Amino acid sequence: MEYCFAPLEGITGYVFRNAHHDFFPSVDRYYTPFITPKQGKSFTSREWNDVLPEHNEGICVIPQILTNQAEGFLKMAQQLKALGYEEVNLNLGCPSGTVVAKKKGAGFLAFPGELDAFFSEIFEKCDRKISVKTRIGKEDPEEFGPLLEIFNRYPLEKLIIHPRVQTDYYKNSPNTDVFAFALKESKNPVCYNGDLFDLEKIRTFREDFPSVDSIMLGRGLLVNPGLLEGAKRGAADQMSGETGNGLSTAPAPDPKRMLAFHDRLVEDYCHILSGERDVLFKMKELWFYWGKLYQDQEKYLKKIKKAQKLSEYKTAAKWLFTECSAKQPQNYGF
Ligand SMILES: Cc1cc2nc3c(=O)[nH]c(=O)nc-3n(C[C@H](O)[C@H](O)[C@H](O)COP(=O)(O)O)c2cc1C
User: Fold this and answer.
1) Which of 29, 36, 160, 234 is deepest in the core (most CB within 10 A)?
2) CB of 135 closer than 6 A to ligand 1?
3) pLDDT single digits (tens) 295-307
4) In this structure, which topology does domain 2-239 adopt according to CATH?
5) Is pLDDT of 245 > 60?
């Protein structure tokens, strides 16, 4: 099984990616948050830093592009080729209103004719591998049939499917019927993405879809960065005949390791961000996810959220990791 870390804009940039790879080396491929081609301009400094090879040493990284313009896509793919990337990923899943209004991300799915013309041009002219991360439609899962016919006309490296429509955002459950249809009818290799938050969910998914050999996880890996170590350990146990289901339980990572991972993030963000406020903002964002991992963490979490100085913040975070024990995986309430 191949495990991919989903792109999460604002969170899984190169600082997070490197720390995760060093502390929890369990992911096969990391997809970057989207990069957007801009007319007459090259990368922003954030985008450039994210894809620089020296910022991604030893990690398998696939840059993701968000656009509906073949010319911009091709130019960016060329620049990424010069940096050594062999594959680029196209974002057809972003549900954000501003992106969709520009006919990009999941918004592009509502224009199948234009999408087909876009694919025709990029597949004719691009000499890199192209994978696609898509939702199953703009408003109605019925849109997916015709969309799959388009995808099937082109040699995608991988079709990553998040089986929700744009208007779901992250509500409702992933549509496994449409995913099953995609799996049966796709001429391209398929990767599943959506709501695999814990090992039990991964196990059920693998039982339901035993032919899928690539899955992508986002929020589950943010909550529990060590989640896939349990999955890999389970698969190894199964090969040696020690467990039946191929998945061990994945408790929250040892608090000492979590604290070390956390401290590394703080240190690295301090190096690249311009002040304590920005570092605090970045770290507090992560607590939306980590806060779900431990028991009786409320009073520490409150201190973390209220902290205005990095020193106060670090003390509160250390307390939480030292004092709180892990919860059993549960419904995280996303
Ligand atoms: C904060 C946030 C940022 C995201 N940024 C991106 C992005 O840049 N590109 C993309 O394709 N998907 C993005 N996504 C979607 C995720 O990659 C993923 O498809 C989604 O979270 C569902 O997977 P999960 O249930 O495993 O989290 C983002 C999602 C969230 C919550």
Assistant:
1) 160
2) no
3) 888 999 999 999 9
4) TIM Barrel (3.20.20)
5) no
Ligand 1 center to 271 CA (angstroms): 26
Token digits of residue 54 = 């020296």
Is the full-model pTM beyond 0.85? yes
Helix, strand or coil, per DSSP, at residue 138: coil
Fill in the DSSP letter of residue 103. Answer: T
User: From CA 234, how far away is CA 57, in angstroms rounded?
Assistant: 28
Residue entry with tokens 């992560």: 286
- Number of neighbours of residue 10 by Cβ within 10 angstroms: 11
CB of 7 shorter than 6 A to ligand 1: yes
In the chain, the percentage of residues whose pLDDT exceeds 70 is 93
pLDDT per position as a tens digit, 100-120: 999 999 999 999 999 999 999
Q: Are strands 2-5 and 159-161 parallel, antiparallel or unpaired?
A: unpaired
Q: In the chain, what are the domain boundaries?
A: 2-239, 255-323
Compute the half-sphere exposure of residue 102: CA atoms within 13 Å on the CB side of its CA: 12
Residue with the two structure tokens 């057809």: 92
In sign, the C-alpha dihedral spanning 278, 314, 225, 218 is negative
Is the model's pLDDT at 225 over the cut of 50?
yes
Q: Are 187 and 168 in contact (CB under 8 A)?
A: no
The structure tokens listed for 111 are 């224009």
Verify whether ligand 1 is closer than 6 Å to residue 273 (CB atom). Answer: no
